[in-house]
């Protein structure tokens, strides 16, 4: 199965990597760790070059994150409240969560965008308050590109390393990845079905 996915990513080429990474940051169907890791395995097999893979992954990351930055900038802080009030159950958050994120962003400044690029979940989430606080476009793009390039390089190099141990990886990671996917979906369903606004808790 892993072999098939690696070949599929290689056939999609660098534009495929850009598309997957952009999509992953808008609505994550496949984690970036998987995309860049398997891309690194394609590098190990000679299907891609490391530099272009990192560049494509970083471009896709910037595009996906800029989507949420633009949403935050367009609607502003209060403009998102009706959306969160309506879809809070499916997002498993309420307006107080958004307020906490925004306060944290304002208190720490622009460096948060760079640092959060290395953190699962938060690396996309931080783009929204960056837009809501009207962080300058150039600062957001530079911080996002710099942090993403470093993180994507780590993931790609990990993929190159793991490709040398492909048989062991395919034997153990396949069942683990399937179990992890089931666990994540189960956790999300549990969150949605048990989630209540703070005033009802």
Helix content: over 70%
Strand content: under 5%
How many structural domains does the protein architecture include? 1
| Structural class by sheet pairing and helices | mainly alpha
Number of helices: 10
Task: Give the strand tally.
Answer: 0
Output mean pLDDT: 77
Low-confidence stretches: none
Shape, please?
A: globular
Distance between the termini: 44 Å
What is the chain-wise order of helices and strands? HHHHHHHHHH
Radius of gyration: 18 Å
Biggest sheet: strands, sense, closure?
none
Keywords: Cell membrane, Membrane, Transmembrane, Transmembrane helix
Protein name: DedA family protein
Membrane topology: Multi-pass membrane protein
Domain VTT: 30-159
Using brief descriptors, characterize the structure shown.
single chain; 201 residues; mainly alpha; 10 helices; 0% strand; globular
Task: Describe the fold and architecture.
With about 200 residues, the chain is mainly alpha-helical. The chain has one domain. It is about 80% helix and about 0% strand. It starts with a helix and ends in a 7-residue tail after the last helix.
Concise description?
The chain has 201 residues and is mostly helical. The protein is 82% helix and 0% strand. It has ten helices and no strands.
Topology:
Blueprint: H1 2-26, H2 32-44, H3 50-79, H4 81-91, H5 95-108, H6 111-115, H7 122-125, H8 127-132, H9 137-163, H10 166-194
Helix pairs in contact: 1-2, 1-3, 2-3, 2-9, 3-9
